[in-house]
Write a structure and sequence with these properties.
Oligomer: single chain
Mean pLDDT: 86
Helix content: 25-40%
Structural class: alpha+beta
Number of strands: 4
Low-confidence stretches: none
Number of helices: 3
């Protein structure tokens, strides 16, 4: 997972968040075409690493409930964010939005 930084997050925090989300995402690397999947998720953080709202796909044309490869990857990405909360490694006073890029090619290369 890669990040578009919003607010005052520092590299160490971003790297820890990326590692946690990457483990939780678990894209289906064995399916043909999966490595080309890229899903961007907007995460709304509240104080203490809590979620202040449901994570959202930045591309509204993706249906996370569809049975398509992209839909399944999007559903897994949204679920990874929810399962990972609260993100206790976040600075305690940080509240704001962060866009996370779930890149299957990178994720599958690490397996």
């Amino acid at each position: 997972a890669e990040f578009t930084r919003v607010g005052e997050l520092i590299g160490e925090v971003v790297n820890g968040l990326a590692a946690k989300l990457q483990q939780l995402w678990n894209p289906n690397c064995d399916v043909e075409g999966a490595a080309g999947i890229n899903v961007k998720v907007l995460i709304h953080f509240g104080p203490g690493g809590s979620l202040s709202g449901a994570p959202e796909l930045t591309d509204r044309s993706i249906d996370p409930l569809s049975s398509s490869l992209l839909g399944a990857a999007a559903h897994r990405a949204l679920s990874a964010v929810v399962r990972g909360a609260p993100f206790t490694d976040m600075p305690p006073n940080f509240a704001g939005d962060v866009i996370v890029n779930f890149n299957a090619k990178q994720a599958c290369a690490r397996r």
